[in-house]
Automatic annotation (TrEMBL):
GO molecular function ontology, one term from the record: ATP binding
Family (UniProt): Belongs to the TRAFAC class myosin-kinesin ATPase superfamily. Kinesin family.
Region of interest: Disordered: 412-456
Keywords: ATP-binding, Cytoplasm, Cytoskeleton, Microtubule, Motor protein, Nucleotide-binding
Sequence ranges of Polar residues compositional bias: 428-437
Protein name: Kinesin-like protein
Organism encoding this protein: Acinonyx jubatus
Main location: cytoplasm
Organism lineage string: Eukaryota, Metazoa, Chordata, Craniata, Vertebrata
Length: 582
């Protein structure tokens, strides 16, 4: 019983204990919640305190706006009254700020609008330009096609023109004579005797009547009157320029490129303008004024320019130009390019050899390759320094020799040509007879074909030759006043010129024998003067207008008239078949 009662009480207290334990637990949880809430309230309080601090600072700021003495009264109403003007001022400031902001904004807007419209215009312009570009491009394409067509037409016309040109040259005759009257110069007066100076006969007695006629009119008391007219292919008056004169020479260069040998020769009395015509005034020691650098150039530099211009128009032909320069002095031939430049005398003496087909060759003649007009002229100018000159009473720098500048045009050797495999045979073919041991350098010009004999020299084909000849002046010994060795020179000059006249006379009369061999000059110039064929010769008669030289002038014009009578056969290579345009 007691045990049962004790068990009942035990369970009761056990339950009670559990109940109390649960209550304690619930109270602890509640405390935790309260503590959490308390912490949250503390946090909010801190936030409120912070906000109150800021508004306190703002009101202090407002008070400071009112001035140093402004103090917020204790009553809020009074404080508001004191703050009102400040607030009004602030409002006005804000309005002004707003207005200036609006102004700035409006400006910005205007700029933006302008910028946008400019961009739009730019885009429109770019589109238009693009369209224009497209249309120009198509026009350019069209023009390019037109140009190509025009170019091929031009090439065709060029070929036709070449054919016509050659026919014209043939019709005019392969030997042509021009006459150039130089102006009256100060030294003409100085050299005249006082009696003539006072005479009523005009100082100028030679006149160009028109482009083809020259008149010599002179009535002197002690001489029979002269009233002769001569006709030539072209007559130049004293005022006509070097350029005009070259305009008539130029077509011969086209013939040269077509394969014809061309000779251009200045003939006349001493001091009447041969060197000036052929070489330009520099050759006479008179510098060209710098303001007229090209106006006075003679035939040589102009022909060199034209030659290389024509060669460059057709590079596929690969024409090469070799130059040789020779002086015929006292009936001896001197190679001016073989000169080593250190000795004062002329270059080595060369002899004329007559090779097969009666073609002349000068043994061991130096041939210097040139690649431009400038090189050509410089080479000629260098060798001119070596030319024999003398001062006579007619001309202060009188040339005492005949000068021949020869440009040989060669084409590259054909593939498989025998010469290409046999250098010695090629050498002999190009150079004529074999050279002696002692003179090997000269045979090739040293610089032109290094290692001359035995060296591999290609078998070139000679395409054509251009010979520019500045003859020594014929002169009347009485007028030129020369004596001693100069007299001997004059005699050689006059004899060689007489031999030239004889050759032309024989050609004009079609004699069986043409006396080329009578002088080294005529022998050397066979290529240029020989009839029967493949050469075109232009003789430029240079005459003085002066009354004192009238006798020599008449002789010179007579020579020209005789030269005009020479009838020669058709030029070989004169009418090439039209080629396809490039
Ligand atoms: N057309 C011209 N216009 C102006 N001056 C000229 C003309 N032709 C020649 N002369 C001048 O006449 C002078 C003689 O000319 P140039 O030396 O050419 O004569 P040349 O016939 O070659 O004489 P030579 O046979 O004695 O060498 C030079 O002073 C030259 O400048």
């Amino acid at each position: 019983m007691r045990a049962a009662t004790g068990g009942r009480w035990g369970r009761f207290w056990e339950q009670r204990a559990r109940q109390l334990q649960r209550q304690v637990q619930a109270r602890e949880e509640w405390i935790v919640d309260l503590e959490t809430e308390n912490a949250a309230l503390h946090l909010r309080l801190a936030q409120y305190q912070g906000a109150a601090g800021q508004s306190g600072g703002a009101s202090a700021g407002l008070c400071s706006l009112g001035g140093p003495r402004a103090r917020l009264p204790r009553s809020p109403h009074a404080a508001l009254l004191r703050l009102r003007p400040v607030i009004q001022a602030l409002k006005q400031d804000i309005k002004a700020l707003q207005a200036s902001f609006l102004e700035v904004f409006r400006n910005f807007w205007d700029h933006l609008q302008t910028g946008l419209s400019e961009v739009a215009e730019g885009v429109q312009r770019a589109q238009l330009q693009h369209q224009a570009l497209l249309s120009w491009r198509s026009k350019a394409g069209h023009l390019e096609r037109c140009l190509q067509e025009a170019d091929s037409r031009y090439q065709l016309e060029k070929q036709r023109r070449k054919v016509l040109h050659n026919r014209l040259v043939e019709l005019k005759g392969n030997i042509r004579v021009h006459c150039r009257i130089r102006p009256l110069l100060p030294f003409d007066k100085e050299s005249e005797d006082p009696a003539s100076q006072n005479s009523s006969v005009p100082a100028e007695v030679v006149h160009a009547v028109d482009d083809e006629t020259v008149l010599v009119k002179c009535d002197r008391a002690t001489h029979p009157p002269i009233n002769n007219t001569y006709s030539f292919e072209r007559v130049y008056g004293p005022a006509e320029s070097q350029q005009v004169e070259f305009g008539d020479v130029c077509p011969l260069l086209t013939s040269l490129l077509d394969g014809c040998n061309v000779g251009i020769m200045a003939y006349g009395q001493t001091g009447c303008g041969k060197s000036c015509t052929m070489l330009g005034p520099q050759s006479t020691g008179e510098p060209v004024p710098p303001w007229q650098p090209h106006s006075d150039l003679g035939v040589l530099p102009r022909a060199a320019g034209e030659l290389f211009g024509l060669i460059s128009e057709n590079p596929s032909r690969s024409l090469k130009v070799d130059v040789s320069i020779v002086e015929v002095y006292n009936n001896n031939i001197f190679d001016l390019l073989a000169k080593d430049g250190r000795t004062a005398a002329s270059g080595p003496k060369r002899e004329v050899l007559t090779a097969q087909e009666a073609k002349q060759e000068v043994c061991l003649l130096t041939r210097e390759p040139v690649h431009s007009a400038a090189e050509f002229t410089a080479l000629a100018a260098g060798s001119l320094q070596l030319r024999a000159e003398l001062a006579t009473s007619v001309h202060a720098i009188s040339s005492r020799s005949h000068l021949t500048i020869t440009a040989t045009l060669t084409t590259a050797p054909a593939r498989g040509s025998p010469g290409a495999h046999h250098p010695r045979a090629a050498e002999q073919q190009a150079n004529g007879p074999q050279q002696p041991e002692g003179s090997r350098r000269s045979a090739s010009g040293g610089r032109a074909w290094p290692g001359a004999l035995g060296a591999q020299r290609p078998a070139e084909q000679v395409h054509a030759k251009l010979q520019l000849v500045d003859l020594a002046g014929s002169e009347c010994v009485g007028v030129s006043g020369v004596t001693g060795s100069a007299l001997r020179e004059t005699s050689f000059i006059n004899r060689s010129l007489a031999a030239l006249a004889d050759v032309l006379g024989a050609l004009a009369e079609r004699r069986g024998h043409v006396p080329y061999g009578n002088s080294k000059l005529t022998h050397f110039l066979q290529d240029a003067t020989r009839g029967g064929g493949d050469a075109k010769l232009l003789v430029i008669l240079c005459v003085s207008p002066c009354r004192k030289h009238v006798a020599e002038t008449l002789r010179c014009l007579g020579f020209g008239a005789r030269a005009r009578q020479v009838q020669r056969g058709q030029a070989r290579g004169g009418s090439p078949a039209p080629r396809k345009p490039r």
